[in-house]
Amino acid sequence: MNIKISKEFEKSARKLSGKYKESLKDVILEIRAAQSVGDIGNCKKLIGYNSIYRIRMGDYRVFFLLEIVELTVFLKYLVSRGEAYSKEYQGKLKLNDD
Known about the structure:
Blueprint lengths: L1 E4 L1 H8 L3 H16 L9 E3 L6 E6 L2 E8 L4 E9 H4 L2 H10 L2
Parallel strand pairs: 1-5
Antiparallel strand pairs: 2-3, 3-4, 4-5
């Protein structure tokens, strides 16, 4: 799969500590090697959204938008578990959902 990364995701990724950086590298490599969303570990489609998925990465959640046409994963947000399901991020995800 192809991967695109938002500026917000990139900024959050830079703030990660050592073990989480390694986990994020593993997640990105796993996404690149995947032929479909089902091949990505710890990945679930969010209920109430058309094309938003999340990957569990320890205490963090990676939210991404899947563009089926190009099989492109757009890594949108990387947030802590506590923030992940707040109204702020739910609103941001709704705006990005098709």
